């Protein structure tokens, strides 16, 4: 391997490499190792604790799918909460919806937001300066446990369950998520790549089933996540949120006026279809 390559080994003996054109930042923040580098193929890349979080080239796959299915399925979102998401991509997509009055973003590491605003401004695209954006730099677990606020949709855009993100995957956190959501509220969170992160995927399903009446998964193909096939966990006490017909989603999509590169109502409905190896894993748990 050439010296000017970054190699991600999140999945043990299997990895992926990126040829670095220029290293823009490489240091340890208060909470984690953070790197931002430039590449010819993918644009700028954000890496936390050795794991690729996002790239300029393909970030829209993930950020659109972690936001728009929940917002359009709910249909009346006024207040939204994002835990994590310090790069601003999820915030950008949420604020595309004119009906949303406020998005609260709780990020544990202010350095992530500061450095992404400096080196990856295209991800947030001005979202941090939107008057509807409310930024809070604190522990998301602590915020959820203590807040008396209520939200229509909650998104957990966190790293994998290592380091500061571990408690975001535990039962008390999910119970508190249910507490702060309205009666038709929806929780969406990243749940790993099932091909490599089988235990994380199955455990997330079990814990969400214990906290909510309806738990499921969406899938989104993200080229720069190892194995590509990313799972987003979905949880709500209103099963109708997950089963909106396509014609209703299309009406809401057109009425919203949002522009998307990956998401559309047909992708929305199809994303809930799971292959047999995943269905078998969930059935056998």
**Pattern of helices and strands:** EEEEEEHEHEHHEHEHEHEEHHH
**Secondary-structure arrangement, i.e. CATH architecture of the largest domain:** 3-Layer(aba) Sandwich
CATH H level of the largest domain: which superfamily?
Answer: Vaccinia Virus protein VP39
CATH-defined fold name of the largest domain: Rossmann fold
Q: Termini, distance in Å?
A: 40 Å
CATH class of the largest domain: Alpha Beta
Q: Could you tell me the number of beta strands?
A: 13
Number of domains: 2
| SS-based class | alpha/beta
Extract low-pLDDT stretches.
Answer: none
Write the layout of secondary structure elements.
Layout (H helix, E strand, L loop, with lengths): L4 E7 L2 E6 L2 E7 L4 E7 L3 E6 L2 E5 L3 H16 L4 E6 L4 H6 L7 E6 L2 H10 L1 H4 L8 E5 L2 H7 L4 E7 L13 H10 E10 L7 H14 L2 E8 L7 E8 L9 H11 L8 H7 L4 H9 L1
Parallel strand pairs: 7-8, 7-10, 8-9, 10-11
Antiparallel strand pairs: 1-2, 3-4, 4-5, 5-6, 11-13, 12-13
Give a brief description.
Helices cover 33% and strands 31% of the residues.
């Amino acid at each position: 391997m050439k010296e000017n390559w970054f190699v991600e080994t999140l999945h043990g003996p299997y990895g992926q490499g990126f040829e670095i054109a220029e290293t823009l930042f490489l240091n340890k923040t208060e909470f984690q190792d953070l790197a931002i580098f430039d590449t010819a193929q993918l644009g700028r890349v954000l890496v936390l604790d050795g794991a690729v979080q996002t790239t300029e080239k393909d970030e829209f796959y993930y950020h659109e799918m972690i936001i728009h299915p929940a917002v359009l399925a709910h249909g009346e979102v006024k207040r939204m909460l994002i835990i994590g998401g310090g790069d601003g991509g999820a915030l950008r997509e949420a604020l595309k919806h004119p009906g949303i009055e406020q998005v609260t973003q709780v990020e544990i590491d202010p350095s992530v937001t500061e450095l992404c605003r400096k080196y990856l401004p295209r991800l947030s695209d001005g979202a941090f300066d939107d008057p509807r954006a409310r930024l809070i730099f604190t522990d998301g677990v602590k915020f959820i446990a203590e807040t008396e606020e209520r939200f229509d949709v909650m998104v957990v855009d966190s790293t994998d369950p290592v380091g500061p993100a571990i408690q975001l995957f535990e039962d008390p956190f999910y119970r508190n998520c249910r507490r702060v959501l309205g009666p038709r509220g929806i929780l969406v969170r990243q749940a790993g790549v099932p091909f490599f992160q089988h235990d994380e995927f199955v455990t997330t399903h079990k814990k969400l089933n214990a906290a909510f009446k309806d738990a499921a998964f969406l899938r989104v193909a993200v080229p720069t996540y190892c194995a590509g096939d990313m799972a987003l966990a979905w949880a709500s006490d209103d099963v109708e949120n997950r089963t909106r017909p396509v014609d209703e989603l299309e009406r809401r999509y057109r009425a919203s006026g949002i522009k998307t590169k990956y998401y559309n109502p047909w992708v929305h409905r199809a994303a809930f279809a799971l292959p047999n190896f995943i269905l078998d894993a969930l059935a056998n748990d």
